[in-house]
């Protein structure tokens, strides 16, 4: 009889060790617990980005470059960090609705093309404290550039979509870029 108990005991231990364990840091939840039972909305945002690379109100600074950056017609290898105002209209004194905060890097040796990693952090109205995250390629000399919206926070949680950028005006020290952003969110 003891032998049967012993074999049963070994059998149970073997089976319990072969059953996959759930990870303590992962659990499946219902999307409704995060408000995802509501229908998605599609929002269109239009604003102007003011990238000022010099002067007393500079908003973008080169923080890194490769030794060959100065010899490259595209500035290949340079990295710029920015905290640019987002405004309602192209004039620099128009209402600020947020900031474009992030990094862009010259990532092409053959054309002026940036890798953009940025957050549109909004500060007005219902969107105060919400943000959209963009990660993509920006070929600056193209009339219209399209970059993916890869996420968001606040009212833009679970956001997906795209941003279309077109240069409104450009001088030696400042570029004003119109952004039309289309995002699905809950």
Automatic annotation (TrEMBL):
Signal peptide start and end residues: 1-24
UniProt GO BP: phenylpropanoid biosynthetic process
Localization annotation: Secreted, Extracellular space, Apoplast
CC per GO annotation: apoplast
Cross-referenced Gene3D superfamilies: Allene oxide cyclase-like (2.40.480.10)
Pfam families noted in UniProt: Dirigent (PF03018)
Keywords: Apoplast, Secreted, Signal
Recorded family membership: Belongs to the plant dirigent protein family.
Function: Dirigent proteins impart stereoselectivity on the phenoxy radical-coupling reaction, yielding optically active lignans from two molecules of coniferyl alcohol in the biosynthesis of lignans, flavonolignans, and alkaloids and thus plays a central role in plant secondary metabolism.
Subunit structure: Homodimer.
Stated name of the protein: Dirigent protein
Species assigned in the record: Vicia faba (Broad bean)
Native organism taxonomy: Eukaryota, Viridiplantae, Streptophyta, Embryophyta, Tracheophyta
């Amino acid at each position: 009889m003891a032998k049967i108990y012993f074999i049963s005991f070994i059998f149970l231990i073997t089976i319990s060790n072969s059953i996959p364990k759930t990870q303590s840091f992962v659990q499946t939840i219902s999307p409704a617990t995060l408000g995802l039972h509501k229908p998605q909305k599609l929002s269109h945002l239009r604003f102007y980005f003011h990238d000022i690379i010099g002067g007393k109100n500079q908003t973008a600074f080169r923080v890194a470059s490769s030794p060959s950056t100065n010899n490259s017609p595209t500035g290949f290898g340079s990295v710029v960090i920015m905290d640019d105002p987002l405004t309602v209209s192209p004039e620099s004194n128009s209402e600020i609705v947020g900031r474009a905060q992030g990094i862009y890097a010259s990532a092409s040796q053959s054309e002026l093309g940036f890798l953009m990693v940025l957050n549109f952090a909004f500060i007005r109205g219902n969107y105060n404290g919400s943000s959209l995250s963009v990660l993509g390629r920006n070929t600056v000399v193209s009339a219209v550039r399209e970059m993916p919206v890869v996420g968001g926070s606040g009212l833009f949680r679970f956001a997906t979509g795209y941003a279309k950028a077109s240069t409104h005006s450009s001088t030696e020290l400042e570029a004003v870029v119109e952004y039309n952003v289309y995002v699905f969110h809950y």
